[in-house]
Design goal:
single chain, about 180 residues, globular
Length: about 180
Amino acid sequence: MRPVTKGGIPQINGTDKTVSDYKDWRQDLIDRIGNFCSYCNMVLNDSPQVEHVAPKSTNPALALVWSNMLLACGPCNRAKSNLPYDLSTHYIPDYHNTHLAFDYVVVNHPKRKNTLACNPVPKQNHAVNKDKANATIELFKLDAMTSSPRATDLRWKYRYEALQSSQLWRGSWDDWGA
């Protein structure tokens, strides 16, 4: 999970933008925070979903409000569904520096022999509220390791690939600077 800064309401000719459909925030969110899921960091190659921080089903007044919108991948958006969460119970990417709350560990995939995965865990330092970090992981099912011929949740795999790539580049950087 990476922290995001989406800033204030987008402006059109000096006036706050308004929308009649929450999906109309999609391009503004992409422009501000990039084409990544706000929760799992997965690249959103196509069809990024506009996600309501406070569910529109229980908070209809926030259904079109800019401050209530983030981008999400399908697995994160489906896992959260219309479940509520807030600053006191979960880490929220546009309010917390979520880099400080989570580490990523390599684990053996429980159902795929000789396959490694990468999952988030609460950072082990005194500043992290581990209950809050675990609640965030559970809400978005960030530690799910789906194994099915029809799997659509491969976040564990993409995290592992990203970790491998970053370690390779870091090693190259360290070798170059030596």
